[in-house]
Amino acid sequence: MKSRFRNIALAGTVAAMMAAGGCGSADSTGRTDLIIGTYGENIYLYSFDGETLEFTPRGRVEAKDASYALEESDRIYAVSECGDGSGAYSFIKDGDGSIERTADLRQTGNDPCFIMLTDVKGGRHMMTADYSGGSVSVFPIKDGVIQDRCTQLTFSGSGPVTHRQESPHIHQLKVIPGTEGRILAADLGSDVIRILDSNPSDSACILSHAGDIPCPPGSGPRHMEFGKVKDGLILYCIAELSGEVLVYDVSAGFKLIQRIQADEVNAGGSADIHIHPSGRLLYTSHRLENDGIATFSINEDGTLVKSGYAHTGKHPRNFMITPDGRFLLVACRDDKVIQVFRIGDDGALIPTEAKLQLDSDRPSSITGASKQ
Hints:
By secondary structure, the chain is mostly beta strands. About 0% of the residues lie in helices and about 55% in strands. The protein has one domain (about 5-370): Methylamine Dehydrogenase, Chain H (7 Propeller), CATH 2.130.10.10.
C-alpha cells in the first residue's frame, strides 16, 4: 500500500502533546478495544496493541451492512444501511465471548449511517442519522435492549448540487457541550446544521426542531467536532462536497469565522473529522480522489492552519485516534483494510506496516469501545 506524508511547516509546536490525557477504552498497557462496522455481513471486535501494533480478535457478529456500530460495556448497537429495509440492532456479549442479538431489527428512516447514545428525559436512548430518509429516529433503550422507535423527525430542503443535494441527508449527530439536551444534526443535502431539542416542554414529544445553522451553499456538511478555546467553544464541521472545514464560534451564536480547504483536488468526498486528545491538532479524511488524511494545527482562537496530508488506502471513511494520542487508525473501505499511522511529535502522520485486512467485508466505521 503506497503511503506518503507531505510536510508543510507547522504554525507553532505541539510540545508535550503525548502527555495529554485521553478517554475511551485504552488500558495501562496501551491496548485499545475497537468495534468495526462494515458494508458486508459482519461487525468485528478487535483489540489494538499500541506496543506491538498487533490486532487481536475479540468477536464477530452477523449484521447486514452495519455501516456504523458502537460498543458500550457488554452491549453493541449498530445500524443496517439497507434502503427501504434499513433499521437498527442491539446485541449483548456473553461471558463466554459469544454475541447475540437482543431484539428484532427496529425500523429507522432509509439508510441510517450514524448512531448516538444519549440520556433523554431521564432515560437512555439511541438516535440514528438517517441519510436517505432525511430524518432522525429515536429509540428508548431498556436494560440495554433497543425498543420500538418513539420519535422520528423528518426534514425538508435541498441544495445547489442537484445530483447530491436533491433532498435532506442527515449524516451525523452531536450533543452541544454544556447544554440541556441540545443536539446538532448535520444535513448534507440542505446545507444546514439542524439544532434539535431533546427535552422540549411538550411532555409527549422527545425531540423537536429548534432552528438551523446555515452552511455555505453547496458545501454539504457531514461530520462535526467541538473544540475548546480560551474564550469558549468552537464547532468544526467537515463539508463533504466543498472539501472545507467550516469553523464556527459557538459563543457568538454559531458565527462562521473560517472556511479552510482540506481536500486538495475538489473530489467531493470529504468524510470524517476528529480532534487529537491534546486539543491542538485536527484531522480530516478525504475519498474518491487523492485519498488521504489532512492535518491541521489549532490556533489559540480556534482557527486552523493546514500542516500536512498523508495518503491512505482506497476510500478512507471513518477514522479514530487512540486515547493516548499515539496512533490514528483509518477504515479504508475499498481496500478492506484498517490502516495504522503513528502520530509524530509535530502531529505528522507516519505510515506503519501495521494493518488489519478483512477478507470480504468493507470497513466503514471504527470506534473505541466505551466502558461506561
